[in-house]
Design goal:
This protein is mainly beta. It has one domain. The chain has a 6-stranded antiparallel barrel. Strands 2-3-4-5 form a 4-stranded antiparallel beta sheet, covered by helices on one side.
Length: 302
C-alpha cells in the first residue's frame, strides 16, 4: 500500500506501543513477535526493527536493527530526547512515516510548558531514526541493501556522522560504515554564531514550473559510491542563512508531489539552549543558539 504517515503524543510508557501501531498501519509491515516490525523492500532487502530492544527510558529509546527477518547481524541504535532527568510519565511527541521502502520516525521530548521539559523556554531535544532502501547507481550492483541513519551511542553525545549499509556490494560484509552527501550550499563559518551559519536559500523552483530537491547519496567508507536513498530527499533548512535568494519550499510540514508519491518536509533534529552544544547527524547539524534549526527532509507522506 501507500505510505502510512502518523503523528501523535504519548506518555513514554505507551510510546513503543503507539509507534508500533503507527508502523503497522502500513500493511507492508508485519509484527512477527514482541515489538518487532518487519517489511521487505521491492529490491528484496529486509527492514527489521525491534522498537523495544530495552524498555523505553525517561530520555531515550533503545532499538534493535537486524539485517534479515531471521534476525541476522544485529545493530543497536538509540533515539534521545533529553540528556538526563525526566520521568517515564512524561509526554513526548512523535511522527512516523512507514512504507515498503523505508521507515522514518522522530521523537521530541516534552515541549515548553509541559512537565519535565528540558528547558522551560525551548522545550526538549528531538532525534530521528531512519532505515531505507538504497537505489544502486551501478547495474552490476544486485545486492539488496538498506541504509540505517540512527545514533549509535549508548550515552548522550553531541552527535554522530556515519550511517551504515546492511550489505556491501561484494556481498561479504554487513553493516558497513558509510557517509551521506547531497547538493547543498557551502556552509559559511561565523565566529559570531560560534559555529556554522548555513547559506541554505537557493532557488529550487525551475523555469519548467517544478521545484527540485536533492537526493541523499550513500558513499561506503571502503568501497565508495553505492547509490541513493530511494525515498528521502534534501529540502533545504528551516532557517535560511544569508545570501542565495529565497528558497521557495523550505517550510516544515509543506507537502509536495513527486511521481505517484506525496512527500512532507520534516525537521529530524532540534537541540536545546540549556545543552550548550551542537547536535549533528549525517543529515546535517544544528546549534544550541538556534534551537529549532534543522535540515529539512522530504519523507513520504502518502
Amino acid at each position: 500500500m501507500a505510505t502510512a504517515f502518523t503523528t501523535g503524543a504519548s506518555v513514554i510508557t505507551s510510546l513503543v506501543a503507539d509507534l508500533k501501531a503507527a508502523v503497522l498501519s502500513c500493511t507492508d509491515y508485519a509484527n512477527p513477535a514482541g515489538q518487532r516490525v518487519v517489511a521487505t523492500t521491492t529490491r528484496g532487502a529486509d527492514i527489521v526493527v525491534d522498537l523495544a530492544d530495552a524498555a523505553a527510558a525517561a530520555g531515550k529509546l533503545t532499538l534493535g536493527v537486524y539485517r534479515t527477518s531471521a534476525l541476522a547481524d544485529k545493530l543497536t541504535r538509540y533515539l534521545y530526547w533529553r540528556p538526563s532527568g525526566g520521568a517515564t510519565s512524561d509526554t513526548v511527541h512523535w511522527a512516523v512515516s512507514a512504507g515498503k521502502e523505508h521507515l522514518y520516525f522522530h521523537v521530541e521530548g516534552p515541549q515548553a510548558g509541559e512537565t519535565n521539559a528540558a528547558d522551560a523556554t525551548d522545550g526538549s531535544a528531538k532525534q530521528a531514526f531512519f532505515i531505507g532502501d538504497i537505489a544502486p547507481y551501478f547495474a552490476a550492483d544486485t545486492v539488496p541493501a538498506v541504509c540505517v541513519v540512527a545514533d549509535p551511542s549508548a550515552v548522550v553525545a553531541d552527535g554522530y556522522i556515519a550511517c551504515h549499509v546492511s550489505r556491501n556490494q561484494a556481498n561479504n560484509a554487513s553493516w558497513v560504515a558509510a557517509r551521506l552527501a547531497t547538493l547543498a550550499p557551502t556552509p559559511l563559518i561565523s565566529a559570531a554564531a560560534a559555529g556554522v551559519t548555513p547559506i541554505t536559500a537557493v532557488q529550487r523552483a525551475a523555469s519548467d514550473g517544478s521545484a527540485y530537491l536533492a537526493p541523499w547519496v550513500v558513499y561506503e567508507d571502503i568501497a565508495g559510491l553505492r547509490g541513493r536513498i530511494a525515498k528521502v530527499f534534501y529540502a533545504g533548512a528551516n532557517r535560511q542563512g544569508s545570501g542565495g535568494g529565497t528558497d521557495p519550499i523550505a517550510s516544515t510540514f509543506s507537502r509536495y508531489t513527486y511521481g505517484s508519491d506525496t512527500y512532507i518536509l520534516l525537521a529530524p533534529m532540534r537541540t536545546v539552549a540549556a545543552s550548550s552544544r551542537f547536535a549533528y547527524s549525517p543529515w546535517g547539524a544544528t546549534y544550541y543558539a538556534f534551537v529549532t534549526d534543522s535540515p529539512l527532509l522530504a519523507v513520504p507522506y502518502s
